[in-house]
Amino acid sequence: MTTKTAASTRTGGATPSERTPANTKLYRTKNDLPPATRAQVADLLNQRLADCIDLQTQCKQAHWNLKGANFIALHKLFDEINDSVEDYVDLIAERIAQLGGIAEGTARVVAERSALDVYPLVLETSDEHVDALSTAIAAFARTARLGIDEMDELEDAVSSDILTEITRGVDQWLWFVEAHQQGERVDIS
Ligand SMILES: [Fe+2]
Known about the structure:
Family: Belongs to the Dps family.
CATH class: Mainly Alpha
Protein name: DNA starvation/stationary phase protection protein Dps
Number of strands: 0
Largest sheet: none
Number of domains: 1
Domain Ferritin/DPS: 43-181
Pfam families: Ferritin
Bound molecules: fe (ii) ion
CATH superfamily: Ferritin, core subunit, four-helix bundle
Region (Disordered): 1-23
Number of helices: 6
Distance between the termini: 36 Å
C-alpha cells in the first residue's frame, strides 16, 4: 500500500514510494522486509533521528541555562526529559541498523537535516525555557506522529510501533512542561 497521504507530503515533500533514499546500499540481513522497504524506512528514520538528536541537545541547553523561579524543579525535569529522549534516539538509530541501514547521527548531519527550529541561545527565565522547550517537544511529536503514518504506508509495523512508543513518551513530556504555563482554558470553537 503506497497511497499518497498528507502525512508524507508534510514531512518529506514526497510519499515513501516517490522518495529515493540518499543511500540505497544496505547491509545484508535475514530480516524478511523487502530491501526497497528497508531502504525507504531507513531513509525516513534518519530524518526522525536528526530531529530527535536535535531535541536532546535542546533539553540539555535548557537544563544548563535556566535561571529564576522553579529552578531546581525545571532543571531536574529537563534532565529527565533528556534521558528519555536519549532512549528514543537509540531506538530509532538501532532500528535503522536492524534494517541494514546506516544510522546517520553525527552533529554535523543533524544540524543540516533537523526539521526543528534552532533553540535560542539567549533565553534565561523559566517561562522562556518552558515555552521554547515545549515548542521543540511539540515540533518533534508532530514529525514523529507523521512518521507513524509513513511507516504504516510502508507496511513496517515494528518501525510504526517504535515511533508510536516514542510519541506516547513525548506527548507526556509535553504535558509535564506545558503544565507550568497552562493557566486558563481557551475556547476551541
Ligand atoms: Fe546536569
